[in-house]
Amino acid sequence: xxxxxxxxxxxxxxxxxxxxxxxxxxxxxxxxxxxxxxxxxxxxxxxxxxxxxxxxxxxxxxxxxxxxxxxxxxxxxxxxxxxxxxxxxxxxxxxxxxxxxxxxxxxxxxxxxxxxxxxxxxxxxxxxxxxxxxxxxxxxxxxxxxxxxxxxxxxxxxxxxxxxxxxxxxxxxxxxxxxxxxxxxxxxxxxxxxxxxxxxxxxxxxxxxxxxxxxxxxxxxxxxxxxxxxxxxxxxxxxxxxxxxxxxxxxxxxxxxxxxxxxx
Length: 264
Hints:
This protein has helices spanning about 5-50, 180-185, 225-255; strands spanning about 55, 75-85, 90-95, 105-115, 120-130, 150-155, 175, 190-200. It is of the alpha/beta class. A five-stranded mixed beta barrel has the order 2-4-5-8-6.
């Protein structure tokens, strides 16, 4: 290797190290998006197939710890026997842009504690009601505290985010189906299930409200595009550095081969 070439490579060493590090980060981000893609596809498949499974009896509170509402038990149908505590009903603000039933738009989930015959309480999402039909009288519903058996899909506890508005418990209004918040405000005695249950469409009352069967099963899945973007940036970075290195080495080579100018 000539001295000039050695100096040329030496001048590229630090940029090359930085480019290799950035290239590795970009490829790692692409790989991470592919793993997210596999997870999202599995979740979508579960959301499609699990509601069609045979209905299971919800186990007693002592076995709730064996359930996984974020994983294998999400969207599975369960049968609950007990009675609704309608006096402790809560409304959770929502918007239903693509309803399965008649009503949609801004409104509320009607979340009612359900006292199980086997003991314990489950927060049951009875369905959707429009903003102007939120109260039992406005929706023409006669409430009953008699024992009933209902079927619904298991859903995980809904965590609040930084952007979730503050609840208005004095109005019975919440902005997340958060078990701890609703249970505390409604004075529910433990054990309270660490999950919620969405009633299926056939549980809609004769009057049509609350409109059950509106469990959201639509997921945005852009992970493949994101992965291709990261891989594309990695390829572009490699191409730009390759062009830069080639030009730098060419300039040094030309400088070595060009004879010095004679001063008259």
